[in-house]
Design a protein that fits this description.
heterodimer, B: mainly alpha, Cytochrome C Oxidase, Chain A, two-stranded antiparallel sheet, two-stranded antiparallel ribbon
Chain lengths: 287, 607
């Protein structure tokens, strides 16, 4: 039986320099990378899944908090963030395609655009968080009841339960915008006392929030910060990875033969986007 | 089909090249220096680094165990001191001595679970053996593998640092609301410990990703899924649990940290949170975690039972499918840790049903191992001693789990020593015995040295009998009501704690409790003797052991087709896939004191 030559690291080999030693072909390496990344994404889904489960449990346990709390969120900013992130997913996917086709300049431009989208997302998030801290609705120990009472008017004590008129005052001084609003249209269910769970809140806007309602929404604020905070951390990590890709691309590392890192970071970025697409309706849109 | 036991008359036709088993260039001596180890991408060296850290953790956890048993030998305060608290008006105040006990059992549990048992077999033996069993040069992602090791090390440092920072007395389960109280009422070690566990979780997840990708992608031509060694099925099922369950632990610990550090009210009832929710989150991971602990152990046992019965494994497909079944069903039973936590009867009934159901695949495996041994040629070497002990002891542990899965009995047995005995039977009698079996089985392959078999048997004797003496009395006293996590089981302590209760069951049983505690402590120290003997045997092996042949046991999985220790890239000549449980081609060679293969099959067939 003929003996094959022993393989040592010094044996001259003619494989693609991008292929690691323990793989026998570039195809095997690429397939491994993709499988590994998909499994990692599964772990991320499980991790956020725990938070989504928690959301469901708290929504059931403290419905008051959710009823009032989401009014504190500005749906417009949320929608802008959603659009920005979806667009950045688009530019990222296109960047992957460009890298596969060897279009280096286009790849760089698209990676930069993706980064801009991510940065825009973080800027909006910063603005939202900052505003929340300012008016006293921060998470946990940053929930400042005095500041809330400054920014939101208090509910005047109800003399008699009136089935037809919500006691929300006409003028609104929250956030410094003093605009006068017409009283909300009376409905049978909109008679609200401070300690009553509202059955329908679609007639309420942020303008109708009283300090007492905001204080009750403490749990929602906590969950909001937890979920968007963890998501924001993942966006930051994604930005670092995309910047790394950009640097490598500018140095000419990627080619039609070797572009797996762009593909894999793209997969990660799409998941980050997907998680936001779940977060947005659950936090901003549901009533 | 059995192969005959080795007889001195059988000679090989093609002896190994002279000096083959000396392995001139192997992974151990290929490069030298500390940095070559710390920066290695070689899965075998990573496995050894894990081994050093994990054995140290076992030693540390074991010290805490001995402290527990020494304290509980007799009622009242025995050896545990009071720990200093704060200085008030110039005088040092102390925590009560029972707080020290709480810290000791917490650290014992936490170190053993997170630092030792969960990584043990996958990170050491999985890392070493998986690529070689696949005929591959390394795992799918070698750099990720090294990262996993450093994550383990970082988590371990944080964990042990928790002791220095202020200690931990919540129990290894970190139950709320106690674990989220402010630090002047509770020791401050919760934060670094949970952060450490969080990082350890990522080590586990990355290892899981690596193993799944490796098994999917790196199998050689001819090695279909149902031709892999069962160890790989076990590691695969374990990896599936690692990647699906550990992220839930990650988020649970993050929430706990957020609660302690930022005051977010998730589990705190005063802030609208739900403390039982913590238990759901925690056990959703921690129950599958116990299957992470046992599945690799079962894989080891499958290998060893077959080799040392000189008989093909019985029911290969059933064992393989049972591994997957345990992995998946294990996600459906977490509520059986919470039967008395106030969950609904319907939920409890469902969890109870699934708990009974998940026992079935484990039983399937036990029957298949026994069927493998039946009419086999039992070769009673140290690995086989431990593997057979595993079957016996794991069966006891598993059967006692059924008492706990039944709602009516669980209500009486919860939080008693019955539970402690149950999980030690499956974790120590199960995983640790299989771990020791794996150590004895793969030691010659890893280090190229044999160990003194007599010493190995002596160590086994002390470990096996010491283990049973430690934990069997705990079943008895647990079923008579002895509660767990009690620092002091004297009648006076009970009366002080429950001044108005009817404590007649204590006075009826105090002699039984006393006897059981004493036996248990003696057993623990017998185990210590066993482990010390084992340490001596293994160190002696490294220093003065006989050189190992490539196949001392006559096994047929691919790791035995390369030298002991293997070369850096695992094989000098790429191996072909084979049936890992077909031992017919291996024959005893007295000169090499191991098994060798004929090059071509003998005419008339081997017998």
């Amino acid at each position: 039986m003929t003996q094959a030559q022993p393989i040592t690291p010094d044996t001259p080999h003619d494989h693609d320099p991008h292929v690691a030693h323990h793989f026998h072909s570039a195809e095997q390496q690429i397939a491994n990378g993709k499988l590994g990344m998909w499994i990692f994404l599964a772990t991320e889904v499980l991790m956020f899944g725990g938070l989504f489960c928690g959301y469901a449990v708290w929504r059931r346990n403290v419905p008051d908090s959710f009823a009032y709390g989401h009014l504190l969120l500005n749906t417009l900013w949320g929608a802008i963030n959603t659009l920005v992130l979806i667009s950045s997913s688009f530019t990222m996917a296109w960047a992957v395609r460009a890298a596969q086709l060897g279009q280096r300049k286009l790849t760089s431009i698209l990676l930069v655009l993706t980064l801009c989208g991510a940065a825009g997302f973080m800027a909006v998030k910063y603005h939202e968080y900052h505003h929340k801290f300012e008016i006293g609705t921060g998470p946990g120990r940053f929930f400042n009841i005095d500041k809330i009472k400054e920014h939101f008017h208090s509910e005047p004590p109800r003399v008699a339960a009136s089935p037809e008129h919500a006691p929300a005052p006409v003028t609104n001084t929250s956030g410094g915008n003093a605009t006068s609003l017409p009283a909300p249209a009376p409905t049978p269910d909109s008679g609200l006392a401070v300690n009553q769970t509202p059955v329908h809140t679609q007639h309420l806007t942020e303008a109708h929030l009283t300090a007492e309602m905001v204080i009750k929404s403490r749990n929602f604020i906590d969950i909001y910060f937890l979920m968007t905070g963890l998501h924001g951390l993942h966006v930051l990590v994604g930005m670092i990875l995309i910047a790394w890709l950009l640097v490598r691309n500018l140095r000419g590392h990627f080619s039609p033969r070797y572009n797996a890192p762009v593909d894999l970071v793209g997969l990660y970025w799409h998941l980050v986007d997907l998680i936001w697409i779940f977060l947005f309706p659950l936090l901003y849109l549901i009533q | 089909m059995t192969t005959p036991l080795p007889t001195p008359d059988l000679l090989t036709r093609n002896p190994l090249p002279p000096g083959e088993h000396l392995s001139a260039d192997n992974y151990l001596n290929h490069s030298r220096g500390l940095w070559s180890w710390l920066s290695t991408l070689d899965h075998k060296r990573i496995a050894l680094m894990y081994m050093a850290g994990i054995l140290f953790s076992f030693f540390l956890g074991g010290i805490f165990a001995l402290l527990i048993r020494a304290e509980l030998f007799s009622p009242g305060q025995n050896i545990l001191p009071q720990l200093p608290d704060k200085i008030i008006s110039g005088q040092m105040t102390y925590h009560p001595w029972q707080d020290t006990y709480n810290q000791v059992f917490t650290l014992h549990g936490a170190i053993m679970v997170f630092l030792f048992i969960i990584p043990s077999i996958p990170s050491i033996f999985g890392n070493f053996v998986l690529p070689i069993m696949l005929g591959a040069k390394d795992v799918a992602f070698p750099k990720l593998n090294l990262a996993s090791f450093y994550l383990w090390a970082a988590g371990a440092v944080l964990f042990i640092g928790a002791i220095a920072v202020g200690g931990l007395d919540t129990g290894w389960t970190f139950y709320t609301p106690y674990s989220i109280k402010d630090s002047d009422a509770v020791f401050a070690g919760v934060l670094p410990a949970t952060a450490g566990a969080f990082i350890l979780g990522f080590s586990s997840i990355l290892t899981g990703i690596n193993f799944i990708a490796s098994i999917h992608m790196l199998r050689p031509a001819g090695m279909t899924w149902f031709k892999m060694p069962l160890m790989l099925w076990a590691l695969y099922a374990t990896a599936v649990i690692q990647i699906l369950a550990t992220p839930v632990l990650a988020i649970t610990l993050l929430l706990l940290i957020a609660e302690r550090a930022a005051g977010i009210g998730i589990f705190d009832p005063t802030k609208g949170g739900d403390p039982v929710l913590y238990q759901h989150f925690f056990w959703f991971y921690s129950h599958p975690a116990v299957y992470i602990m046992i599945l690799p152990a079962m894989g080891v046992v499958s290998e060893i039972i077959s080799v040392f019965s000189r008989k093909h494994i019985f029911g290969y497909a059933f064992i393989a499918m049972s591994s997957l079944a345990i992995a998946l069903l294990g996600f459906l039973v977490w509520g059986h840790h919470m039967f008395v936590s106030g969950q609904s009867n319907v939920a409890s009934a469902i969890f109870s049903f699934f708990t009974f159901f998940v026992a079935i695949p484990s039983a399937v495996k036990v029957f298949n191992w026994l069927a493998t041994m039946f009419r086999g040629s039992i070769w009673l070497k140290s690995p086989m001693l431990y593997a057979m002990s595993f079957i016996w002891v794991f069966t006891i542990g598993g059967l006692t789990g059924l008492f706990l899965g039944a709602l009516a009995t669980d209500v009486h047995l919860t939080d008693t020593y019955f539970i402690v005995a149950h999980f030690h039977y499956v974790m120590v009698g199960g995983t640790v015995f299989a771990f020791l079996a794996a150590v004895h089985y793969w030691w010659p392959k890893m280090f190229g040295k044999m160990y003194c078999e007599t010493g190995g048997i002596l160590a086994w004797f002390f470990v096996f009998f010491g283990f049973n003496l430690t934990f069997f009395p705990q079943f008895i006293m647990g079923s008579h009501g002895m509660p767990r996590r009690y620092a002091d089981w004297s009648i006076d302590a009970w009366k002080a704690r429950f001044p108005d209760a009817d404590l007649s069951f204590i006075s009826h049983n105090i002699h039984l409790f006393s006897l059981c505690h004493k036996l248990s402590t003696i057993g623990a120290f017998l185990q210590l003797v066993g482990f010390l003997i084992l340490a001596g045997v293994l160190i002696h092996s490294l220093v003065k052991g006989r050189l190992a042949p490539r196949n001392p046991w006559g096994a047929n999985s691919l790791e035995w087709h390369t030298s002991s220790p293997p070369p850096l890239e695992n094989f000098k000549h790429a191996p072909l896939a084979n049936d890992p449980y077909d031992f017919q081609s291996w024959h005893w060679n007295d000169d090499l004191h191991g098994f060798t293969q004929h090059e071509t099959p003998e005419p008339g067939g081997a017998n």
